[in-house]
Specification:
With about 250 residues, the chain is α+β, with helices and mostly antiparallel strands. The protein has three domains: about 10-75, Integrase, N-terminal zinc-binding domain (Arc Repressor Mutant, subunit A); about 85-130 and about 205-249, Alpha-Beta Plaits (2-Layer Sandwich); about 135-200, Alpha-Beta Plaits. About 45% of the residues lie in helices and about 25% in strands. Helix 2 (about 25-40) runs antiparallel to helix 3 and helix 2 crosses helix 4. The protein is globular, with a radius of gyration of 18 Å. Residues about 1-5 have low confidence and may be disordered.
């Protein structure tokens, strides 16, 4: 996690690994359903649904499964009434953590999330305690083989706010409502998109310069990710490449 820009890329790679294990499907389907319930079932008129639809397709969720989720969201099929809840807290070493969840039982989920924080050496905070340290952002990840000048020309014309090289990918950021249009423009230019999403990028970071510190934070993030109701976990950890390499070993 070399700086805050790397966080979205690492989450993308983790999501790809989770999808291979089938773990991600249920969460993606739930996101599609809630997006349809909140903004309608037409992806062309609902930017959030359009982004969640594409995210599910990127993870190889079957089309008919996505379409059923949309119909549950719009009420055409029976479904569970999920509530969107955000949790804020701190991981070890003062790292800010922002959790997005969808639940049908607020009390149960809240108690379980508090327990996860506590067991992993963190602490749950009051609403607003860490949210100000993150900014809602659209992210499009492009194959690193793409020509930088060509990508920059296409992306900036489509509303991109920043382009950065992160490992073997180009990470292109934009306003949340521009995500689908930016992805479409990049694909229309013949460039390969590896994924796109709405994310929360930290506006400041906490550097973790030891394997022990990084491992403690990542244990909490993994434990939160494993909870069925948790859809996304964001942190303002900055883990240098050298520490990440040691963790990999």
């Amino acid at each position: 996690m070399s700086g805050h820009s790397k966080w979205a890329t690492i989450k993308h790679k983790k999501g790809a690994a989770d999808a291979k294990r089938g773990k991600l499907f249920a969460k993606l389907i739930r996101q599609v359903e809630v997006a349809a319930r909140n903004g309608g079932g037409d992806p062309e008129m609902n930017p959030t649904l359009r982004t969640m639809f594409q995210k599910a397709r990127d993870a190889s969720v079957p089309l008919d499964t996505i379409e059923r989720a949309i119909k549950r969201g719009t009420g055409e099929l029976d479904g569970v009434d999920y509530e969107s809840i955000n949790y804020e807290g701190y991981a070890p070493n003062g790292v800010a953590v922002y959790v997005e969840a969808l639940t049908d039982n607020r009390n149960r989920t809240g108690a379980e999330i508090r327990s996860v924080f506590s067991k992993q050496g963190g602490s749950l905070a009051e609403p607003g305690a860490v949210a100000w340290q993150f900014e809602r952002t659209g992210v499009v990840l492009v194959d690193g083989a793409a020509d930088e000048d060509e990508l920059m020309m296409v992306a900036l014309d489509a509303g991109a706010t920043d382009i950065a090289r992160v490992d073997d990918l180009w990470q292109v950021t934009c306003g949340p409502t521009d995500t689908s249009a930016l992805r479409h423009a990049v694909e229309e230019a013949g460039l390969t998109v590896q994924g796109s999403d709405l994310t929360m990028l930290p506006t400041s970071t906490v550097e973790l310069d030891s394997v022990e510190a990084a491992r403690a934070v990542l244990r909490l993030i993994d434990a939160l990710d494993d909870h069925d109701d948790v859809q996304d976990v964001y942190a303002n950890a900055d883990i240098p490449d050298a520490v990440l390499a040691e963790l990999g070993d």
